[in-house]
Amino acid sequence: MDFLPKDIQAYVGGHTQTEPDYLSELERETHLKVLMPRMLSGHLQGRVLKMLVQMIQPHNILEIGTYTGYSALCMAEGLPTDGKIVTIDKNEELEELVQRYVKKAGFESSIELKVGKAMDIIPQLNTNFDLVFIDADKINYLNYYHQVFDQVNAGGYIIADNVLWSGKVVGDKTDKDTEAIRHFNKYIQEDNRVENVLFPIRDGLMVVRKK
Question: Which residues pair with 197 in a beta bridge?
Answer without folding.
Answer: 207
